[in-house]
Amino acid sequence: MEKLIDEYLPLFHFSETHATEVNAPANVVYSSVLACDLGQSAIVRFLFRLRRLPKCEMTIEGLQQIGFRLLAKHEDREIVFGLIGKFWTSSAGIPPFRPEEFVSFDVKGYAKAAGNLLAVPITSHRTRLITETRFNAPRLGVVLASLSTGH
Length: 151
Hints:
By secondary structure, this protein is α+β, with helices and mostly antiparallel strands. Helices cover 26% and strands 31% of the residues.
């Protein structure tokens, strides 16, 4: 299955995928996901605090205000976000970047993360909702060294 996320982070060091089936058409599932406030999830709020990410409204617009970038969108099917940073540090070191810079970004000491939400129709009234998160540290040795030295 072709996914937009493959265009933005085809090579990665870590990936995690979750899926669930929903009794609704794909366009309804997709629209609902886009309107969702992730801040309703205690787990998501905890993870943001743990990473010391700035507080924001955890909607698509709010996430973009703290450094996430909308990389691609295929109506009623998939949305892809990207983030660049030093995720292993207490401040997360998120630099500003434009979506078109994401693929070619390769600065020492930084890593990239991309995530998607994908609505795949099973039938006209049943959808598989898949989310995948990928992490790539092009210079992983630098990341590991900074973890061991605490920088």
